[in-house]
What does this fold into?
Amino acid sequence: MSLKKCMSLSAVIFILIIVFNLTGCSPRVTPEPPPVLSPAEPRQTVLFEPGDFQDPAICGACHTEIYQAWSGSKHASSWVGELFQPDFQQALAETDGAVGALCGECHAPVAFRTGQLPPFDGSEFDEISQRGISCDFCHTVSEVTEKFNTGNVSSPGPVKRGPRGDTVSPMHETMYSQLHTEAEFCGACHNVRHPESGVLIIDTYDDWLAGPYAAEGITCQDCHMTPGPGVGKNPGRSSIAGNAKEREHIATHYFVGGSSWQLSRMGSEEHARKAEENLRAAARLDLAGKLTADGLDLTVNVTNVGAGHKIPTGVTYIRQMWLEVTVVNEKGDTVFRSGYTDAENNVDQNAVFFRRLFRDKEGNATNKSWLAQEIGFDRRIPPRGTETETYSIQAAGKTFTATVRLLYRSISQAAVNAHSPGQGLLVPSVEMAKAEIKF
Ligand code: HEC
Ligand code: HEC
Ligand code: HEC
Ligand code: HEC
Ligand code: HEC
It folds into this structure.
């Protein structure tokens, strides 16, 4: 591998993150204070040459199952993503390109680190760069210096780093890397900090770190690199060639979260099914209530029983998670509804939503991450925690049945209509949990 450029310090005050430590270039510098997102040159790093990170198809020749799982995952589509691209293009347009390097380094790390990004339209990408967060990017990470904004150091070359250390491969050298077994490895990307305001746009890693799972030593890998929700085993061999050892558990590479709709649109049906299982494993609903003089009080408790971080997590400002409530009286008349989807597939705006929204410089609520100056609204359910909502309902009747569903969407219908006008795409709602009570 070769290094083309060291970072040019004269260029900028706000460029901070120097990525590679294996060279004569300076070590990575911690941003203090946080960098300024200014519409000047992109952040620069030391660049490798195109081809220094190997094509995932090469790895796939031996690591066939891992390759299949990864190919259908959101890591493989992190650049071409149907929801990523429109948001990225809008961010570029509204910041005169200032966000290009920030978003690009994480969503297209190989392209960024081999000098194919910018330009931000991806026109210089080779085939390897198109494939997003790929095998050789992850397996040549040698260090994590910052647990946000792609704070992983790359050392591409013949040595592939992994969780074993007792492996022999005919194609590459191997090295034990404890880092790959730790949440910190994921944290370099699953925490996104606005470079100017310091707002944590994505806080999954910090959130996990502060919660009960971190304290118990249950990592991201334990839940997201296992066959299904919770901790499970996937026995077998990781390679079909080269005397791979039989293992009790081979780390799965589906990297499934909650994005079942997008996975299904990518043709990754198995992944989509796993994502729905994940969503259903995450939450439980418990209802209580009492009759009042003119109706009823309904109390809904939403408990996060399965996720190692708040639900929702990640791009919570884009996702929708809300309560749908229906109350019927003894005659079968619907006396109360909340959280319904209308004829245009939009969710009732008065619904109880669990999400985060930002505030921009003028103090207005926004879901544009690049404008985030502070957190404007944050209501989510912490790991093993409960959020309670009480509905005081005026209704005619003697006895009532209340049905409550916790629903999830990857994105609002309105946002999809704006991104893809005229395509007739309908965003499905996934039921995470359901409960009923009579009183
Ligand atoms: C010719 C077959 C072959 C190819 C091609 C191949 N590998 Fe491997 N790899 C193996 C074998 C065999 C092992 C050992 C598996 C075992 O014994 O558990 C292995 C082990 C690994 C390990 C585990 C290292 C450890 O000790 O934890 C990683 C990571 C890895 N390979 C990554 C890659 C990447 C990335 C590529 C593509 C750039 C790749 N491999 C291409 C055969 C191959
Ligand atoms: C987002 C980062 C990431 C990507 C992309 C990725 N891996 Fe991994 N891989 C990991 C981590 C982390 C582990 C170790 C998980 C653990 O054991 O805790 C791992 C484990 C492995 C192992 C060892 C499996 C075992 O349990 O013995 C092999 C082999 C491997 N990966 C190959 C690949 C190949 C081939 C690809 C591409 C098709 C790939 N990886 C893509 C992060 C990644
Ligand atoms: C180089 C940065 C990077 C690293 C390292 C990384 N991720 Fe990701 N991850 C991303 C990006 C970017 C996406 C979103 C891709 C997209 O736009 O669809 C993502 C998506 C995901 C998703 C899918 C979320 C959904 O909506 O369904 C899961 C799950 C996930 N990552 C888990 C992990 C785990 C676990 C690790 C550590 C073993 C890890 N990631 C390491 C950047 C990274
Ligand atoms: C105890 C198991 C568990 C642990 C530990 C865990 N997760 Fe999750 N994660 C889940 C479940 C279940 C979901 C599905 C619910 C949801 O989407 O919020 C999920 C969802 C996600 C999503 C998708 C969010 C979306 O947009 O729908 C991402 C990304 C993610 N996790 C990343 C991580 C990372 C990174 C870590 C470690 C810092 C981690 N997870 C630790 C269980 C876990
Ligand atoms: C340091 C890594 C990192 C940076 C920088 C980053 N993202 Fe992401 N992005 C992620 C991760 C991780 C996810 C997955 C979270 C989830 O699924 O909820 C994601 C998901 C997304 C999604 C949702 C994709 C989908 O298919 O659901 C959009 C849209 C997005 N990012 C846009 C952006 C934009 C625009 C920027 C720049 C302003 C940006 N991201 C910067 C890590 C990053």
Observations:
- The chain has two domains: 9-189, 275-438.
- The chain has a mean pLDDT of 90.
- The radius of gyration is 23 Å.
